[in-house]
Specification:
alpha+beta, YerB-like fold, 402 residues
Length: 402
């Protein structure tokens, strides 16, 4: 290598070292410190990206806030299930207040000008018996239901008082036989019943203009409840010896069947209806008996036909009033769930309940719902037509072969 070459290399090394030193100085100094128009240094500094220094925090950053837990939506409190209890006279499930209502019994006309009568749909028990010379009269007993219009209201008889006395009922009527009125004067203050005679409580009765007297006298459940309050009667729970069970299944109910009886001025027929498990009632002049207050068909769940001895009262009125052997026992037919059995009725005292027994002397179990009691003179023809056996189940349950 000649001397000129060696000198050239030395110059290159010096220039390269100088360049590296300048680059290092520029890199360690802020660009703003280079004076404007400083030639090489300025050119190189302006070509490099400016990097802002990371500031040193004077206060420690706050710690992260905890993630809030979601607030659950409030759950609606379910409404309490209403408490229901069986009504004493029907077995129907009602409120405890309804089950404790004091019974009310109302005498109802049954001559043709009085039909259709009002109140049947709301009654728990309906008694139907001869009143004058074989002409019948009803007594509607209300307990869990408070009826609207009830009527036409007619006069009292002693044996109806005996049936109302079984419940110490509010007994609504318009006058009565001398025997009945004497009983009410002596024991109508709650000893047997609570006397609700229209002659005393006239403001609780009214006459309608679409019928003529005496077939136009009416009252209401609300008015009768008012009479009860005025006499100091208070609702309270009570027991009743009749027992009830739910309807049997449709597969167990027969098809058809009927019951027929007749009074002097009214023939009665019940046709069993398998679908509703009721006895559709028809009377003279009404192929389909209805309740004028509701327009509903009269159709009790249970029908009882009981035979009792009746005879002339001989009270000097010449109105052919009757008396009956109301305390005692006798033949009865009890129909429920489409089947009629022959048994007996039994009443041991004036105020004791009338009971219905089967051929073995055991209490008959009625179906939950209304009961009609047809009281007939001993010797009256009673026609019972049994229904046909229920049809076979189209979907029988297969037996397990194991």
């Amino acid at each position: 290598m000649n001397r000129v070459t060696i000198m050239g290399l030395a110059v290159l090394v010096m220039v390269g070292g100088l360049a590296l030193g300048v680059l290092a100085a520029v890199a360690s100094a802020p660009a703003a410190s280079a004076p404007a128009g400083s030639g090489l240094v300025a050119g190189i500094g302006s070509a490099l990206p400016s990097v802002a220094p990371t500031p040193t925090p004077s206060v420690a950053p706050p710690s992260a806030s905890p993630t809030p837990e979601p607030t659950p939506s409030p759950t609606a409190t379910p409404a309490p299930t209403p408490v229901l209890v069986p009504a004493p006279l029907t077995g129907q499930l009602v409120s405890p207040a309804a089950a404790a209502r004091h019974p009310m019994a109302v005498m109802i006309d049954d001559l043709s000008p009085a039909r259709p009568q009002s109140g049947f749909s709301s009654a728990s028990i309906v008694w139907h018996a001869p009143a004058e010379g074989g002409i019948p009269r009803y007594m509607l007993v209300f307990q869990e239901n408070i009826p609207t219009d009830v009527g036409p209201v007619r006069s009292a008889r002693y044996y109806y008082i005996a049936w109302a006395a079984e419940l110490k009922a509010i007994y609504a009527h318009s006058g009565g036989s001398p025997q009945a009125l004497a009983t009410l004067r002596a024991q109508g203050n709650g000893k047997l019943v609570y006397n609700a005679d229209e002659f005393r409580w006239g403001g609780s009765f009214h006459r309608i203009s679409t019928r003529f007297s005496p077939h136009n006298l009416y009252t209401t459940g609300k008015k009768l409840r008012g009479i009860a309050t005025a006499q100091g009667v208070r609702d309270k729970a009570f027991t009743w010896p009749w027992t009830f069970a739910p309807d049997v299944s449709l597969a167990q109910r027969p098809t058809g069947g009927r019951i027929q009886v007749a009074y002097r001025a009214n023939a009665i027929r019940y046709d069993y209806d398998r679908r509703t498990n009721t006895y559709l009632r028809s009377v003279t002049g009404e192929k389909k008996q209805i309740d004028a207050a509701t327009g509903k068909r009269v159709a009790p769940k249970n029908v009882v036909v009981m035979l009792m001895r009746f005879g002339p009262l001989n009270d000097g009125s010449h109105k052919f009033r009757l008396e009956a052997t109301v305390v005692g026992s006798g033949t009865a037919w009890i129909a429920t769930n489409g089947t009629t059995i022959k048994g007996t009725w039994k009443k041991t005292s004036l105020a004791s309940p009338t009971r219905f027994l089967d051929a073995a002397g055991k209490p008959v179990v009625l179906t939950v719902g209304q009961t009609f009691v047809q009281v007939m003179q001993t010797g009256t023809k009673v026609t019972i037509v049994a229904g046909k056996a229920p049809p076979p189940d189209p979907f029988p349950v297969a037996l397990d072969p194991r």
